[in-house]
Request: fold
Amino acid sequence: MSSSWGERIKISIFGGSHTQAIGVNIDGLPAGEMIEEEQVLRQMARRAPGQDPTATARREADAPRVLCGLLEGVTTGAPLCAVIENTNQRSKDYESLRRLPRPGHADYTAGLRYGGHNDIRGGGHFSGRLTAPLVYAGALCRQILERRGVTVGSHVAAIAGEPDLGFHPVNVDKALLDRLNGEYFPVIDPAAREKMRERIEEARKEGDSVGGLVECAVLGLPGGAGNPMFQGAESLFASLLFGIPAVKGVDFGAGFLAAYLRGSQNNDPFYYDEKGDVKTRTNFAGGILGGITTGMPLIFETAFKPTPSIAKEQDTINLPEHKNDKLSVTGRHDPCIVPRAAPVVEAAACIASLELLAQSGLL
Amino acid sequence: MSSSWGERIKISIFGGSHTQAIGVNIDGLPAGEMIEEEQVLRQMARRAPGQDPTATARREADAPRVLCGLLEGVTTGAPLCAVIENTNQRSKDYESLRRLPRPGHADYTAGLRYGGHNDIRGGGHFSGRLTAPLVYAGALCRQILERRGVTVGSHVAAIAGEPDLGFHPVNVDKALLDRLNGEYFPVIDPAAREKMRERIEEARKEGDSVGGLVECAVLGLPGGAGNPMFQGAESLFASLLFGIPAVKGVDFGAGFLAAYLRGSQNNDPFYYDEKGDVKTRTNFAGGILGGITTGMPLIFETAFKPTPSIAKEQDTINLPEHKNDKLSVTGRHDPCIVPRAAPVVEAAACIASLELLAQSGLL
Amino acid sequence: MSSSWGERIKISIFGGSHTQAIGVNIDGLPAGEMIEEEQVLRQMARRAPGQDPTATARREADAPRVLCGLLEGVTTGAPLCAVIENTNQRSKDYESLRRLPRPGHADYTAGLRYGGHNDIRGGGHFSGRLTAPLVYAGALCRQILERRGVTVGSHVAAIAGEPDLGFHPVNVDKALLDRLNGEYFPVIDPAAREKMRERIEEARKEGDSVGGLVECAVLGLPGGAGNPMFQGAESLFASLLFGIPAVKGVDFGAGFLAAYLRGSQNNDPFYYDEKGDVKTRTNFAGGILGGITTGMPLIFETAFKPTPSIAKEQDTINLPEHKNDKLSVTGRHDPCIVPRAAPVVEAAACIASLELLAQSGLL
Amino acid sequence: MSSSWGERIKISIFGGSHTQAIGVNIDGLPAGEMIEEEQVLRQMARRAPGQDPTATARREADAPRVLCGLLEGVTTGAPLCAVIENTNQRSKDYESLRRLPRPGHADYTAGLRYGGHNDIRGGGHFSGRLTAPLVYAGALCRQILERRGVTVGSHVAAIAGEPDLGFHPVNVDKALLDRLNGEYFPVIDPAAREKMRERIEEARKEGDSVGGLVECAVLGLPGGAGNPMFQGAESLFASLLFGIPAVKGVDFGAGFLAAYLRGSQNNDPFYYDEKGDVKTRTNFAGGILGGITTGMPLIFETAFKPTPSIAKEQDTINLPEHKNDKLSVTGRHDPCIVPRAAPVVEAAACIASLELLAQSGLL
Reply:
């Protein structure tokens, strides 16, 4: 079992929905990096629940406490551990989850994996709440990246089939990324957000939920970062992105669309721009060739399944009685987590980018 | 730089298109496993070039030589290293690749990464030829899995937009998988293959290439295999699959489609079947919840970009002369690698499945 | 930089002498293991300072707070993170350490490594205080091991050249180990302890310090645990033991003495005992052959250098003034850390033993 | 099971005494490093058997064949795999080893670990022959280190209690290291070698064997290389050194002797030398404080047990007959492997030093 990731920038995430606290230990951050706490909290606020009429009404007080690794706001080079207290760790009704595993959740599979000893309260270690320390870790990495000219931003590319505009793959705009990475429910086209909200609201009213897509761009990565084969940029990013709960698909550049293209369309022609820099005229590669960055924007898309916790009655099994049964998930749940997932995807992109640079000797 | 993968089943792939030899070292295979060489060679033959009117006419003699790790055909528990000789390691014309990097290839990015010292002949370590040792490693793992009731098979799900039928996500048929995993250019519906061949042939005639999709299923994995977060089943599979050259997208179960579904559709209801086993009525999860197997078929899809080597003239840069230039890739190249990619995807699935079981104490 | 260790049982230690807190995250503990808190605290008390007239008079309140990973005292299989608050994290006088690095300490080398950004207060992340979370982690592993018939114990084998009796290498007595692993300043022969205390007291009076040896035994490990070469039992134990501050030597069985023996003396003859079990008549191998356990007691010795913090005036450099200077380390420091190091060595042995079993599929 | 080591410079050693071939795959060597083959062969010759009247009369033709990773003698950055053919892989009499495991060998423990499937011929994967690819890998790293001003050398510090002079810990002489690292059976004082040879010859005549010590120095490492705790320089070196067959002890600087010293003796006072460089007046730390290099010579000692293969009759067990039995190991075996072990220790030191620099961003 492992909630650890990375070779140079090692992050270990711990905790569960109802444990005393959750947190993250980060080993390998470069020493001497000033961390602006306010910017960290701004990223965490983007992920926090309860900001939107269409989101859950729960409130989290996610102010992380840094136990070590910072001295007067500057990284010391030693492991940095930050902890977020859970205020609601008492729970009476969780035993029903062990009895009636929720479809689409890890209740059943975790029970198998850990012989029924897993903490099932609120999803335990499998809870979406664990993305809070991930956003925290990403916010640190983001500041280190920005100091090196690397900007990460994302937008909700679709919800329930309702699309936003896409990034321009060649000319991703830094100002746009900076706007998006400061927003809750970031979209390129504000009109798209309204339509997405309607789809979410429709689902919510029916006790149902919807999924969606997040498109993310990393701007300013130098060419030549990455490795061949299994530690290529795609592998590195994907292994982290699939660690985000509810992610079921990841693709880079043209991605699945590339399966429909001709080579003459999908190949990105190289050219020297007026400054003499090497560029590509298109960017179907999403900034990665052979697992190594080209220097063009690194672009990928992540697919989120609909929130599995829904009020609608569902079929499930009754484990102690060993019979088929019905379940209606109570409590307040986001009918769509995608708006809050965008900063989580960005956090993963920040961590993966920093690891990529570190592995390639470019940090 | 790392062409190594895995924690319990560690594979290290080495070599390049024109080095003396290529191969793989596998550390961690369980001891006492009989390896049928003929079955290994059958898998390698599926990947070998030149089997098809639409494939390249090159011929490889890919008989691997096992240097160690087997004693009378049985694994000893010590590292198993197998080597495939390259017969065509002399090459005169590779310097042009350093001059004119091929669009869509790693020529340019590898040059950046390794300061121009990378072996560029035939793509070097980034060549598709490196999938031969991957298939070899997968063929060993496959035999170990089959002895434990696990079957892996795949089919070409689409080429140039021309689709095959899909797997039935709940009732994947073992007989079908066994048929597919013995075939070159495996498809469920033979009529689809004919249409795909037409698309490939059209592209070939125009000096162009096409991409496609491979859908793969792993049948018989027990429930409870996997880990939360970053070493979940999806992360494990994806990090290996994105190591296959030309893969630009991976999704599991409903995958990207999940972004269009409601929770009430995408959640797979649990039930007890007539034998008292836990099943799900649908399988949009692709057999994975919370990074852990459900016991239902594990299903994923992999997107391959079109072969970047095309005869059509393309724009590129002339590095020594520091100017824009033109390039037409000569030599014989597959106008579509997807048919040969299916056994490669299966190999990765076999390796990842064995690792998954080993990590979960289920081997 | 990495304060992480292990592949199956991953421990990450964080914090520094004067950070808000220190702690450890443990990923990979088997689920369903009851943890007796009292036994954990007993192990931590053995390491705590201020128990002895010859030890430092500082007081630590080392009660760890478990943030997650336990549910009603039972491991859940999720990462277990425990935190120990630092009560004395304010410190005025640490800047002198940056000016005048202490001989024998990491002040100077850490300054180089982290560009002067390292937290130097009380030694920072290099402080002996970091062994508290190590003992905590070891105490958990110890309980899991004991349930499987494995007992770990150690004694102070020498201080300032004053020796204790040694373990009987073949017939290590479980009752003896159980006595020792409950004691502060454990020795086999109580008379030896008195002589050692005299040596420590002599050094203390002179503002000096002394080093010593800890001999440790692991009883009850099954034969067949371990790996060849670089992940053999010796490598595994040594990599962890050398992570304990002040350890400068590790040997197994006859160890350095083996360099003086003949093969006919050092080879341990196998025989069947009356129960038909395989034993060796001697145990110069320390229970390990080829990196794999024999089933005989695993025995090793660890050398600790004298506490580098001494009151006696020492030569050092004045970094800002770039000149040679003098230093007398003030504050209360153990004139000998070896008595308190014994439980730390045992903790490392517990963690390494559990990892060894896990890697070998014997857990 | 793992014969792999390293994070940045990953080496995987494969093969056994009687497999078709043995070899090593090295992933992570910096690109653009010229490798002088002659110097590699010189290092391998130092380890080769049969050079000495007191060594075994077997002959190895250990010319490694580089399969990939070099282009015109220069590293490409891709994995470098080198293979050494075994010419004597046919063996009739190995089954006796499975019947009568040799005391002091891994025959018995490997049989337990791998369920009797291990290749037992000539010790299989546990054979000392596996140090040949280790020396090969070390010889590559040595050339890369020398280009960066780092020199590695060792001498046989003792055999059967007969000592050589030691390195001057502060003023290790580069010319001396260069002399030693070119010699078979390197000693500082040639007279010591004669006495050692007498001890070896005495043992040989009696069908017995002797052990010894190798002291090794690494000169020219910059200060500030290493990490705290478990990936400190000592942990890194020790985990590799204990992977060398027959090593039972490792210590750094004063090592075990530090247990007899006072702090005021063992602390190495810092001072500025006439050039303004930071030095220490003594070097009891062996060049490492807190796991990080000081810039002084890194010095360590490694203890080798006597060769377990001896002609003298020994007690052992008869496994198939489940009874106690006698064994006399036939064949030609070194009565002392220590002279040939010196280049192996140096090779490990070269690999560990390169990894240390790479991990610390100093390569």
User: Anything to note?
Assistant: The first helix of chain A runs from residue 37 to 47. The mean pLDDT of chain A is 94. The longest strand of chain A covers residues 151-159. The radius of gyration of chain A is 21 Å.
